[in-house]
Amino acid sequence: MRQRTLPDGAVKCRHHNYVSEERYEDMDLLVTRKGAISAGSGELGIIPGSMGTESYIVRGLGNTASFNSASHGAGRKMSRSAAKRKFGVRDLEEQTRGVECRKDSGVVDEIPGAYKAIGKVIEQQKDLVEVVAKLKQVVCVKG
Fold first, then answer.
1. Catalytic residues, which ones?
2. Mean pLDDT of 93-117
3. Which helix H or strand E contains 81, and what residues bound it?
4. Would you kindly state where each structural domain of the chain is located, as residue ranges?
5. pTM of whole model > 0.70?
6. Residue 76 has what DSSP assignment?
7. CA distance 79 to 37
8. Within 10 Å of residue 105's Cβ, how many Cβ atoms?
9. How far is Cα 43 from Cα 33, in angstroms, rounded to an integer?
10. Going by C-beta distance under 8 Å and a sequence separation of 6 or more, which residues neighbour residue 77?
11. CB neighbours (10 Å) of residue 9?
12. Of 17, 29, 50, 139, most Cβ neighbours within 10 A?
């Protein structure tokens, strides 16, 4: 995620689906990040888990082999339709216990069980980012 400090001291960051003009090995390239964040050296980013798990604030390590990129989040381990077939509202309530969020059939496809374990995803990116902070999920807003 590319960041820019605003006059009021706030940091403005890019989202996780975009195209960026970048230079690698003396070549100008258009890098498309779909479900990925920019992780250039020193860049701050967030790698969220699911609606019931922790998220991570990370600092990019500038790994050019990955085009200075890291994952945007945990990533799905099952499709939305498979999650709807496997889980119900009761499962959603259980898996998001302690998190203020919607707990109805309209968001069952976003259940934590449909996603990879965020801790393992972070561990697998140690060459791309360093963890600055681990955030506990308290509130999650889903459409």
1. 72
2. 96
3. helix 80-86
4. 1-75+116-138, 76-114
5. yes
6. B
7. 22
8. 12
9. 15
10. 114, 115, 116
11. 6
12. 50
The 3-class secondary structure across 6-53, one letter per residue, is: CCCCCEEECCCEEEEEEEECCEEEEEEEECEEECCCCCEEEECCCCCC
Quote the DSSP letter at residue 85: H
Q: Look-up: residue for tokens 């498309």?
A: 32
pLDDT in tens, 2-59: 455 555 655 555 566 788 899 999 999 999 899 899 999 999 999 999 999 999 999 9
In contact, 118 and 49? CB cutoff 8 Å: yes
Contact 142, 103 (CB under 8 A): no
Asked if residues 109 and 80 have their Cβ atoms less than 8 Å apart, the reply is yes
Q: What are phi and psi of 116, to 5 degrees?
A: -65, 160
Return the closest-CA partner of residue 18 out of 6, 30, 4, 3.
Answer: 30
Would you report the helix, strand and coil content of the chain in percent, each value rounded to 5? 20, 35, 45
Is residue 100 helix, strand or coil? strand
Element (H, E) at 92: helix 89-95
CA distance 44 to 59: 5
